[in-house]
Amino acid sequence: MRGLNMSTAVVTAAMMLTSGAAIAQEQVEVLHWWTSGGEAAALNVLKEDLQAQGIGWLDMPVAGGGGEGAMTVLRARVTAGSPPTAVQMLGFDILDWAAEGSLGNLDEVAAAEGWDAVVPTALQGFAKYDGHWVSAPVNVHSTNWVWANKAILDELGLAQPTTWDEFVAAMQAAKDAGYVGLAHGGQPWQEATMFDSVVIGAGGTDLYKRAFMDLDPAALSSPEMVEAFTRMETLRSFVDDNFSGRDWNLASAMVINKEAAFQIMGDWAKGEFLNAGKVPGTDFLCFRVPGSEGTVTFNADQFAMFNVNEGFRPAQQKMASAIMSPSFQIAFNKVKGSVPARTDVSGDELDACGQQGMAELAAAAEAGTLLGSAAQGHAHPAAVKNAIYDVVTAHFNGEYDAATAAQELAAAVAAAQ
Amino acid sequence: MPIQSRQADLRTRLQDLIPKIVLAPSLAVVLIFVYGFIAFTVYLSMTDSKMLPSFDFIGLENFGRLFALPAWNTALVNLVIFATLYIAICTVIGLGLAILLDQKIRGEGVLRPIYLYPMALSFIVTGTAWKWFLDPGLGLENTMHLWGWTSFEFNWIKDRNMAIYTLVLAAVWQTSGFVMAMFLAGLRGIDNEILKAAQIDGASNVALYRRIVIPMLRPAFLSAFVILFHMAIKSYDLVIALTGGGPGRATELPATFMYSYTFTRNSMGIGAASAVIMLMTVAAIMIPYLYSELGAKKE
Fold first, then answer.
1. How many domains would you assign to chain A?
2. Do B248 and A241 touch (CB under 8 A)?
3. Residue A251 maps to which CATH number?
4. A242 touches chain B (CB under 8 A)
5. Which of A256, A341, B39, B98 could lock B183 by a disulfide, CB 3.0 to 4.6 Å apart?
6. A216 and A277 belong to one structural domain
């Protein structure tokens, strides 16, 4: 073990030497997984902003949707003692890294710019650790959306459903007319994303909080949870047979191409509609999953700021400040499909769905119904999240009935803690 | 005279030393990066490591939790199904093809590489190609429907009870040509005189293969088994490309389980425990087998 420590020390020393050389030109090293066209364009806004301030941008993209690859790289970097300046991160991952003592401190810049007043409290729960700001939130996605093909609804004479029963009836009507009722991709996280909304529909925010945030075994195996699983079975009956393994954007394409009536997915799906030249309100509709109105389940991309050498710190603070500037928040989120992470910016530049999302986010933050999305790692740590994925996806694929699934859910959550 | 002998002395000593000097770096590398990390993994499996390695010793608790996980039991059952079928089918097809190709047929030079080429592909390519081919909406089933055979149904890859067999299908397609090449090399190594003598004694073709050729292929069987078994147990890329572990978690294997628990679920201790179990499985089957086979030869 001593030999290993020695070599780490040597590497660290070498790092310090090189960082000494780098002070002359300030720069930030950014680890992220925004590599697809729209995301890369959105990130470019930040890059140019910093370059205008004379701060170099050392890009470190690690492709892969949920950031699994990026997190593996990060572990190696931190273990080797040379963390990047900033890392794109989600929910509990940030708190886990903060608990390891790996994150820096943004209190100064946060105090100077008054972040506490403009960032929703629920979101602050993931950007602050132990009362100190450790990361800069970039956006807020909300996940309890339904995306609907308006042409199909018009053709079948359906109004936008407002209750669960109406929603089921609308899917049935679409199925009877030869369309796919619900476009869905059979990947565990997509099933869990639907499950979030369905749990709120079946048992309200109370059940959601007790089951997913307090991890209360009684709530996890309650009759309301059984009802939630029964509703998942209903959804399953409107999904086509060829769903397993399908990516979410292909499911969105089914709604865009008038093959399917509805999709339950976070607002990143909107980008697919806009890229296809569709207009919100005329070509497609966006509304909250019936039963979950008034509640917003969110996940937020953030840049967690790591504990870097003294020489890198000024650039890191400037980057955090640039991320939180209202102009960047709007410019970025217009491209990304999400809404700004601060509630004091004007949403005039966003499209209809974006404005609706912003208004609902502010209202939910006010009412205390802005809840972290369990499926997106904003309600409990990764081990619990994946344990829930296992049960939800096994049930959705027909392994358990609803009552057994609720029992299994409680058992799996208990085992994962 | 003394100078000459001293020179000769130096030369012999150098000759003794050079192989050791040349081998030393690779030995050191293997010691650290193979055996060192095996030891590290075994240690991690007995700690409470979550996101990053931790050194707090908790004994065998991780193993208990591992075997209580339904996902791990699914992965083990899948491995048994996959490994058994994969090794058996590959061996039978490989041996069959090798025997047929060994009949001094015309065009062997063209046929052999055709069977061997799938091995040149990575499992990712094989997995993706088979994923499209087996997809009911894109591949075989769709094509049959377009051709007018509308009752045709082949949706194993979407069926959680059958999906594990699609892994066997793709893996067998990829590897049986390679097994064939190994058996063919073995067949070519058999002395023709023995076969001629047997034919003169009036042995039928079937008896010739059953009694003489196949028993003489024993070393080829050993290599085939060793290679196929370790490929089965470390199968990771094929699962990721072909089914992604789905539908649901129906096609998880120990290797995919180990990766997801170690790196994406922040349960490094349990991940390390599963890696140790995988290592012990390989060791439990391979060591006695290699010992008996290689030991038998020495005698």
1. 2
2. no
3. 3.40.190.10
4. yes
5. B98
6. yes
A393 in contact with B, Cβ within 8 Å: yes
- Judged by CB atoms closer than 8 Å, whether chains meet at B52 and A242 is answered as no
Put simply, whether A381 touches B (Cβ < 8 Å) is yes
Cβ-based contacts under 8 A for chains A and B: 76
Dihedral angle of Cα B133, B136, B137, B138, to the nearest 10 degrees: 10
Q: With the C-alpha atoms ordered A66, A361, A293, A126, is the resulting torsion angle positive or negative? A: positive
Residue A169 corresponds to which tokens in the numbers above?
Answer: 């009836």
Is A212 in the same domain as A290? yes
Chain B nearest CA to A325, separation (Å): 32
Q: Which of A325, A357, A389 is the last residue of a domain?
A: A357
Interchain contact, B246 vs A415, CB within 8 Å: no
Q: What are phi and psi of B236, to 5 degrees?
A: -140, -55
> What is residue A3's predicted lDDT score, i.e. its pLDDT?
42
Nearest CA in chain B to A411: B69
A372 and A351 belong to one structural domain: no
Mutate to test the interface with B, among A399, A404, A413, A417 (most CBs of B within 10 A): A399
Task: Give Rg (Cα) of chain A.
Answer: 22
Of B246 and B270, more confident: B270
Q: Do B53 and A79 touch (CB under 8 A)?
A: yes
Rounded Cα–Cα distance for residues A161 and A304 (Å): 39
Chain B residues with CB under 8 Å of A243 CB are: 158
Residue A304 lies in a domain: yes
B62-298 under CATH 1.10.3210.10, yes or no:
no
- Are A106 and A305 in contact, with CB atoms under 8 Å apart? yes
- Alpha-carbon gap, residue A338 to A33, rounded angstroms: 16
Residue A16 lies in a domain: no
Q: Do A89 and A227 fall into the same domain?
A: no
Rounded Cα gap, residues A274 and A247, in angstroms: 18
Query: What are A113-121's contacts with CB under 8 Å, separation 24+?
Result: A113/A321, A113/A324, A115/A324, A115/A342, A117/A344, A118/A342, A118/A343, A118/A344, A119/A341, A119/A342, A119/A343, A120/A341, A120/A343, A120/A361, A120/A362, A120/A365, A120/A370, A121/A365
Full strand arrangement of the beta sheet holding A284-288: A180-183, A260-264, A145-149, A284-288
Give me the amino acid identity at A339. Answer: V
| Both tokens assigned to A225 | 């949870």
- Domain segments of chain B as ranges: 1-44, 62-298
Of A309, A331, A357, the last residue of a domain is: A357
At residue B170 the predicted structure's pLDDT band, cuts being 50, 70 and 90, is: very high
Judgement on whether residues A167 and A216 belong to the same structural domain of the protein: yes
Alpha-carbon torsion, ordered B194, B199, B205, B206, to 10 deg: -70
Which amino acid is present at B262? Answer: T
Contact flag A382-B244 (C-beta cutoff 8 Å):
no
A13 located within any domain: no
Same domain for A196 and A88: no
Domain assignment present for A14:
no
Q: How far is B77 from chain A (nearest CA, A)?
A: 16
Q: Cβ contact (<8 Å) for B248 and A71?
A: no
- Please, what is the average pLDDT of chain B? 87
pLDDT digits (tens, 9 = 90+) for A287-299: 999 999 899 999 9
Same domain (yes/no): A53, A79: yes
Full domain range(s) for residue A180 = 142-298+367-416
Are residues A111 and A49 part of one domain? yes
Among B68, B157, B249, the residue with its CB nearest the CB of A415 is B68
pLDDT tens per residue, range A11-48: 444 444 444 444 446 889 999 988 777 678 888 888 98
Residues of chain B contacting residue A383, judged by C-beta atoms under 8 Å apart: 50, 265-267
**Which of B154, B236, B249, B260 should one mutate to test binding to chain A, selecting the residue with the greatest count of A CBs within 10 A?**
B249
Calpha distance B286→B13 (Å, rounded): 38
Cβ-Cβ contacts under 8 Å, A399 against chain B:
160, 248
